[in-house]
Amino acid sequence: LVEERIKSKLESKVDLVQKMTDYHLDTGGKRLRALLTLESAKLTGYKEDNRDLNLAACVELIHSATLLHDDVIDESSLRRGVKTTNSVWGNQSSILVGDYLLSRCFEIMVQDGDLEVLQLLSSTSAKIAQGEVLQLQHKGEVDMLEETYLKIISSKTAELFAAATKVGAILSGTRNKDKEALEFYGRNLGLTFQIADDT
């Protein structure tokens, strides 16, 4: 259902945008962040309508946008064994389609109408962008400090994991203590995930 929402949200009358978003989504991925949103909503007792599906799609769109931008920055030609979008259509189109994904995500957030969700996901997007810039600043450093490395992966990866788990808790209107616990879990899972990936 989340996958269907993402596809319907990304429908475009611009042929190239449609081709690129279809291609990018078809390259797969675990949809781990979307799953975290759904599961934290379920865990904290969310049973109402489809806000969990919409916001899980939103979290996944943020992630997908960062991947498109990442591949351009890293000059990657392969992701998950498939040619990257930028290696097929070029850097300029990839950057703009990444921006398109973020714009669609912000539409979902505004339609949802919850200011706490909007604040969390918009500030998370800003932190991810700052993490990317920080990584660029330290590109190629063989003597990078552990503190700098943790700051980069915290911004780039752990922030979105933390937001994914916290959003689910916000939906159910649970206690702040539960929201904070899920956010803590998401952040540490994100750090662990990235450290394992980098290793």
Provide a short characterization of the protein structure.
The chain is mainly α.
Order of helices and strands: HHHHEEHHHHH
> What is the arithmetic mean of pLDDT?
95
Strand content: under 5%
> Largest sheet, order of strands side by side?
1-2
Q: What's the overall geometry? A: globular
- Main pleated-sheet profile: 2 strands, antiparallel
Tell me the number of helical segments per DSSP (H or I, 4 or more residues long): 9
Radius of gyration: 17 Å
- Given helix and strand content, the structural type is mainly alpha
Low-pLDDT ranges: none
Distance, first to last CA: 33 Å
The percent range for helix content is over 70%
By DSSP, the count of extended strands is 2
Quick tags:
199 residues, mainly alpha, two-stranded antiparallel ribbon, 9 helices
Task: Describe this protein's structure.
With 199 residues, the protein is mainly α. It is built from 9 helices and 2 strands.
Describe how the helices and strands are arranged:
Layout (H helix, E strand, L loop, with lengths): L1 H8 L5 H12 L5 H12 L7 H23 L4 E2 L2 E2 L1 H5 L1 H22 L2 H23 L8 H26 L4 H23 L1
Antiparallel strand pairs: 1-2
Helix pairs in contact: 1-4, 3-4, 3-8, 4-6, 4-7, 4-8, 6-7, 7-8, 8-9
